[in-house]
């Protein structure tokens, strides 16, 4: 017998809708838990995984600050800007040099 939901919906429906919407658009993205202190990543798109060279399993539960993508040319200023965006919960556009798993620069257009 199927389970009836009625007016009760899963708290994950919102997240599921975001994932579905952006996956259809072939976007490279992460979703993190902003309530927890370290802001652990709870979802990694296939495109993000392909772009960075990290498997989804390697990314899940890492900090949304994405320190695993920092490298030699990642500036302290860009890191501080990212951290500030998380703390103030403001939408921000940040330019940051980040690296793939094989230490090559990630390149993309605007």
TrEMBL record:
SUPFAM superfamilies found in the cross-reference section: PYP-like sensor domain (PAS domain)
Origin superkingdom: Eukaryota
Biological processes annotated in GO: regulation of membrane potential
One GO CC annotation: plasma membrane
Domain PAS intervals: 35-104
InterPro entries: KCNH_animal-type (IPR050818), PAS (IPR000014), PAS-like_dom_sf (IPR035965)
One Pfam family recorded for the sequence: PAS_9
Any one Gene Ontology molecular-function term assigned to this protein's record: voltage-gated potassium channel activity
Protein's name according to its UniProt entry: PAS domain-containing protein
């Amino acid at each position: 017998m199927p389970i009836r939901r009625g007016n009760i919906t899963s708290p994950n429906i919102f997240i599921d809708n975001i994932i579905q919407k952006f996956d259809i658009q072939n976007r490279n993205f992460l979703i993190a838990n902003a309530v927890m202190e370290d802001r652990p990543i709870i979802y990694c798109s296939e495109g993000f995984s392909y772009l960075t060279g990290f498997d989804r399993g390697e990314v899940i539960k890492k900090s949304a600050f994405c320190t695993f993508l920092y490298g030699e040319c990642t500036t302290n200023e860009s890191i501080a800007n990212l951290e500030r965006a998380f703390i103030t919960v403001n939408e921000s556009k940040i330019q940051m040099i980040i690296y793939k798993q094989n230490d090559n620069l990630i390149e993309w257009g605007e």
